[in-house]
Design goal:
It is built from twelve helices and five strands. It is mostly helical and about 210 residues long. α2 packs across α3 and α2 runs antiparallel to α8. The longest helix has 15 residues.
């Protein structure tokens, strides 16, 4: 068994069994990116409550940077897909999910429905407790997700985006690589998001 594979953790087993779609032989990364956003908030000791309006901009930007698949999906990332579908892995539940109207001919509510209601999700209590009692699982899960879904060359950039960075990381290089992208250049909220991850300091010189 490789070092980055699950070892006896209920949380890691759920992550390993995550159902993700494939396109041209590559796994979709919508759910993994949402999980990384969740783990970042757990690491910051936030409570077990995740609202769609808070999570959506983070996941949309992450998909624009590190997603893969159809160009249309990368140009207009769909954060409501993983937010709703993560329920299927019994990782979390959405409060009053039964009250949402399914799309006509579809299997889940529209983004408008989810956003208008500001849907709120909660991690499975047992999984949440495991993360709280064993904080090392956060780093272990981040490492496992990165190795399973992305090439090693992207790992540090993804860590930096979500705040799982170290003081030796090339923050200025990160800005050069990603802030020039068309989607992000049009989004005035992206730069503050990156800066906040570093407490408005350079990761190299402080």
């Amino acid at each position: 068994m490789a070092d980055n594979e699950p070892k006896g953790s209920r949380w890691l087993e759920r992550v390993d069994n995550l159902n993700t779609s494939k396109s041209n032989g590559e796994r979709a990364v919508h759910k993994p990116l949402l999980l990384l956003a969740i783990l970042e908030k757990v690491q910051q000791h936030e409570k077990n409550e995740f609202t769609y309006r808070v999570m959506e901009p983070i996941v949309r930007k992450a998909l624009a940077l590190f997603g893969r698949g159809a160009k249309s999906d990368l140009k207009s990332p769909k954060a409501h897909y993983p937010f709703w579908r993560l329920q299927r892995g019994k990782i979390w539940r959405i409060d009053n999910a039964e009250s949402f109207h399914n799309r006509k001919g579809g299997s889940q509510p529209s983004r408008k429905d989810i956003n208008d209601a500001n849907a709120t999700a909660y991690l499975n209590p047992k999984l949440w407790q495991e993360l709280v009692e064993k904080p090392h699982l956060i780093e272990q899960t981040v490492d496992f997700i990165l190795h399973k879904y992305w090439a090693p060359s992207l790992h540090e950039d993804i860590r930096a985006f979500f705040g799982f960075h170290n003081k030796y990381y090339d923050y200025e290089g990160f800005q050069r690589r990603y802030l020039s992208r068309t989607y992000l250049a049009r989004d005035p909220q992206f730069s503050p998001l990156v800066l906040s991850a570093y407490n408005h300091q350079c990761a190299v010189c402080g």
